[in-house]
Write a structure and sequence with these properties.
This protein has a single domain, classed as 3-Layer(aba) Sandwich (Rossmann fold), CATH 3.40.50.150. Helix 1 runs antiparallel to helix 2, helix 1 packs across helix 3 and helix 2 crosses helix 4. It contains 6 helices and 9 strands, in the order ααββαβαβαββαβββ. The protein starts with a helix and ends in a 16-residue tail after the last strand. The relative contact order is 0.13. By secondary structure, it is an alpha/beta fold. It binds S-adenosylmethionine.
Amino acid sequence: MDSRAAEREEMVRWQIEARGVKNPRVLQAMRSVPRHLFVPESYAREAYQDYPLPIGNGQTISQPYIVAVMTELLSPERGDLILEIGTGSGYQAAVLAACGAQVISIERIQAVARLAEENLKNAGIHNIQVLCMDGTAGYPDKAPYNGILITAAAPRVPAPLLEELADGGRLVAPVGDQHIQELIRVIRTGDEYHTERHGAVRFVPLIGMYGWKNEEW
Ligand code: SAM
């Protein structure tokens, strides 16, 4: 147990469980990952508060509740192969790994990808592969994925990512414009894709070939 385990317990109880997240694997992961090691030193005291925080380069680490909701929607099983687009601080990737998944995470900004690698190392997590490139086309080399999680706002679900989903796979993403997005989950069954809507969220943009162009956002 580290010195901030009690804060994590409070965070899970009042911000996450109280708002309806139930998956025990997700709750346990949120209890175990030391979020304070994924925020800048100057925000360390606020690491367990109920809001997103800046991580530099105009990017953010998401609110704990949103990380929990997206993880629950993805429902990673032990041994699942999960692709995350938008590594940011590395925190969401660490939560997925704590659920027992094998995680590949893609970040487009090199300084941010390095920061994530450093954070993961400091947290003693060594089994996450961080790649630096435009993730909107996914990573076909390791496809198919049991889950794909996009943690930046997309204008639409990038078509290549749908192709990289395994049969039975889930894709979770915020889809919308710069003002607001809807959290959506797409479930693949054979060649059929079923889309569900899970409420409003607000993310920084997914910039890339199948995302926003810089000047559009
Ligand atoms: N999952 C992160 C975490 O746990 O800290 C938070 C992600 S942050 C809200 C969104 C991230 O997506 C930013 O770091 C941004 O640079 C990245 N991003 C935006 N477009 C991208 C793209 N096409 N490919 C990969 N990463 C992208």
